[in-house]
Amino acid sequence: MASYFGGFLKQSTAVTVNVGPFEDPTDGSAETGLTIAQSDCLLTKNGGAAAQKNASGGGTHDAGGNYTVSLSTTDTGTLGRLRLAIAVAGARPVTVAWQVVPENVWDSLVGGTASLQVNATTVPATVATSVVLQQVLNFVRKLVGSRAVGA
After folding, report:
1. How many angstroms separate the CA atoms of 88 and 34, rounded?
2. C-alpha angle with apex 104: 132 to 59, nearest 5 degrees?
């Protein structure tokens, strides 16, 4: 089974994610003709019970055994870990996990369009300088890199 971290998603935002590759269970070749229904896409929010995703539709082949899957604002509405598991006949199962973060955090760390809101009173005075905070923000942006997903 393929399982990986897909990056960060902005809370309560509809998004299309890339999932895969789906591989043949016998020879490991890319499966490009699968039929992935909405009912095949099970979401777990913060370790809760698995349930079918809310967004209509299943998966559509993109390239090389990777499929696009739409998630709705309801699907991404809970902060924390979001896990998508897809198991269909003719392919090994694929599981992807994301971290759903508040809009301001996503815009700050991934989108680069906002400032990260912090409470500097909880940071020791010797550390709370704009230079250090900017270095931390730059480090996190590099760490996130291309793993960001969302709008």
Report:
1. 8
2. 120
Token pair 């370790």 is found at 47
Q: Note whether 30 and 83 are same-domain residues.
A: yes
* 29-73 confidence digits (pLDDT tens): 999 999 999 999 999 999 899 999 999 999 999 999 999 999 999
Domain total for the chain?
2
- Please check whether residues 85 and 114 belong to one and the same domain: no
71 neighbors 26 (Cβ within 8 angstroms): no
> 5 with 72: CB under 8 angstroms?
no
d(CA 52, CA 40): 7
Place of tokens 């079918």: 52
Identify which of 69, 4, 72 has the alpha carbon closest to the alpha carbon of residue 36.
69
Contacts for 119 with CB less than 8 Å, ≥ 6 apart: none
Output the six-digit token pair for 35: 């039929």
Predicted TM-score (pTM) of the model is: 0.76
